[in-house]
Amino acid sequence: MIRTAVAAACLTLVALPAQAQWTQGAPGRVWVKGSFFLQRTGEEFDQEGNRRERIDGGESDNRAIFADVIVGILPSLDFWLQVPYLDLSFSNVVDTVRSTGIGDVRAWLRWQVLHGSTALALRAGAKAPFGFAPLDVQFVPIGEGQWDLDFFGEVGHSFWPFPAYWELWLGYRVRFENTTTRKDPGNEFVFLTEAGVNPTSRTLVKATLDGLIGDNWVVEGVETASARRIITLQLTGAARAVGPLWLEAGVRLPLAGRNFPAGPILQLGASARFSEGS
Description:
Layout: H1 2-5, H2 7-14, E1 30-41, E2 43-45, E3 51-53, E4 59-74, E5 77-91, E6 96-102, E7 105-114, E8 118-128, E9 148-158, E10 164-175, E11 183-184, E12 188-197, E13 203-214, E14 218-219, E15 222-223, E16 229-242, E17 245-258, E18 260-261, E19 265-274
Antiparallel strand pairs: 1-4, 1-19, 2-3, 2-18, 4-5, 5-6, 5-7, 7-8, 8-9, 9-10, 10-12, 11-14, 12-13, 13-16, 14-15, 16-17, 17-19
C-alpha cells in the first residue's frame, strides 16, 4: 500500500504554494512556479504510526516537477492550475519498477473575502484522474484513478512594517471511489500553517507545518486499516534573482504519519509574478 498508493500523493501535498489567501488582486495578473522534488527513502510510517525501515528492504526513488499557474480573473477571484510530471520507482532484492508521466491534475477557484493586513479566502477545486493508475500492483501508479473535491478556508496576516507574515489553511477533501479497482480512499482533513520573514528586501526564510488526516480506505466493500496520515515540517530559503524571478530551496522533514513514506524530501523552485502588459 505504501509503495503504490501514496508516492504521488506525498509529492502532491508538498507542492502547494503558500500565501494563497492573498489573491492576485487584478484581472490578468499571473503568478507562475516550477518546483522540483526529490525523495529517496527506505523508511516508512506503518499502519500503527511507527517509523521503521521497510520490512521488505525496498527503497523508493521519487522525483517530480510541478507547474503551478495562478491567474487573476476578477479583483478578488483567482483561477489556480497545478500539473505534475512524476518519475517514481521502487526497488528491492527481487525487482525494480518505474513509472513516469503526467500525474493527476488539480484546479481551484479562490475568492478573497477579506482584504487588508489580515486576509481571508475561500477556495474550492477538484483533482482530475489524468495519471497512470494501473491495476497491476507490479507497477508504480502516478495517479489514483479517481476524483477529489477540495474545500479550503485560508487566513493570513501581514505584520508590516515588520517584514513578516503568518497564515493558516484548513481544508476538507472529498475523495471518490476508483470504480475500476473498487478502492475508496477515504476523505481527508488537510491543514497548513506557515510563518515567514524577509531578512532583506530580496530574501525570504519560512517554516511550514502541514499534513493530512485521512479516513480508512474501503477496498471492495471492506474497510481496511490503511488511513493516510502525515505531518511534515518544511524549512525554506528564497532569494530574488533578477526582475520578478525568485529562486528557493528547502527540505521537508516528516514528523509523524501512518501508511506514508518517512524520508526527507528535497525541493527546488522558481517563481515569478507578472502583470498584464508587463
